[in-house]
Design goal:
mainly alpha; 12 helices; 2 domains
Length: about 250
């Protein structure tokens, strides 16, 4: 009976047939995280089209019927199979995310070191010796310096991911989209930086919660708690950039 297909091959064919079915994948859109599964499995990692469907309202019935109907009616574009995200892509994304998070943790510390009394802080002391004006000016300068560093690092990290994504699709990057998209995680990080720079009690509260103590002369290390919270905000909002579309 060797001319008959084996039970294993029949089952494998049935599974492949079901997984590639439009109805099966559309049904997954009815519940979280089914829309992500359908976008990856059926649409070959089309995560950029109809981004409004990522809003929580569309994760559960009855509004989850909208992505269900849209997929069934062909409102999504099916990418070529070679554009599907692989395990190597996911591993690379994890490595970049972990590394970028680690770098961002130290940004407040970098800004604090650059604004110390023997560096840029000396300029503020020279032109604004009055205590209140001096304190405000240093906090503002430290914040602006940190924001600039964050934006530069964001551009670097996001350009690496964006280039890799568009190269895989055989398309070009959009420099304008890259610069605009980098503003989103930068703004999220800026909110934390401003909150801890101008509201000292909030910064002191973070330090007391973590219980960090530093030796004399190493006060810049007190920025580590702020850096961790800021990096977490930055990492969360930087995920939006995964949905950036490439130029044709």
């Amino acid at each position: 009976m060797g001319f008959l297909p084996s039970i294993k091959s029949i089952i494998n064919k049935l599974i492949k047939k079901v997984l590639s079915s439009k109805v099966f994948n559309a049904a997954f859109c009815l519940f979280i995280p089914g829309q992500l599964f359908a976008r990856h499995n059926y649409l070959n990692s089309n995560y950029t089209q109809h981004k409004f469907l990522y809003l929580p309202f569309f994760w559960f019935p009855p509004l989850s019927l909208i992505p269900f109907i849209m997929l069934l009616s062909g409102k999504f574009r099916k990418y070529p199979r070679n554009q599907r995200i692989t395990l190597i892509d996911i591993f690379a994304w994890l490595l970049i995310s972990i590394f970028s998070f680690g770098v961002m943790v130290f940004v407040p510390m970098m800004a604090d070191l650059l604004m110390s009394d023997d560096r840029l802080g000396r300029l503020v002391d020279t032109y604004l010796p009055e205590f209140f004006a001096n304190t405000i000016a240093k906090a503002a300068a430290r914040t602006l310096l940190a924001v600039l560093i964050i934006y530069i690092f964001t551009l670097i990290f996001e350009s690496i991911k964006y280039h890799k994504k568009c190269r895989k699709k055989g398309q070009k990057i959009s420099v304008a989209k890259l610069f605009k998209a980098s503003l989103i995680p930068t703004a999220a990080a800026t909110f934390i930086i401003c909150a801890t720079s101008f509201f000292t009690p909030l910064r002191d509260l973070l330090i007391s919660i973590i219980g960090i103590t530093v030796p004399d002369g190493a006060e810049y290390l007190l920025n580590i708690p702020t850096g961790i919270i800021m990096a977490a905000f930055w990492l969360f909002f930087s995920q939006y950039n995964n949905f950036l579309s490439c130029s044709r």
